[in-house]
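Hello support,

Our group uses your service weekly, and this is the first time we've seen a run hang past the timeout. The protein is Roadblock/LAMTOR2 domain-containing protein. I'm not sure whether the cause is the sequence or the server load. Input pasted verbatim:
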Amino acid sequence: MGSSLCTGGHTDVEIALKRILSFKDVIGLLLIDADGNILRSTLAEEEEVEKYAQEIPALVIMSRSAVREIDPKNDLKMLRIKSKKHEIMVVVDPQFTLMIIHEYPGHYVEPPPPPPPPKDSDDDYSD
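Update from on-call engineer: The timeout came from a worker crash unrelated to the input. Re-ran successfully.
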């Protein structure tokens, strides 16, 4: 079944994307074409979308080059990037790049703010 085949009004691609988004740790996804045009995004912040769309394809190009340098008959299909806050799964296709951003077990948790400074004993005006 190709991605253009409709099943109940939804393409196979739309069904697959909905399934991916249903996983509890998935924050969002971003689908771009080979020219870097954003085709679909479920990320909330436009600035974040633009950063992913600009930076990740550069990593894909470098990674693909490294894979081909090691074995010219091989090609990059997927790239997995872990950071302090998220994990990014990048599925590489000649026409599209799909980025899935999700939290993973043991992900970075923002430390709580420091406690307020102790009150000075001279500040207490009780009788």
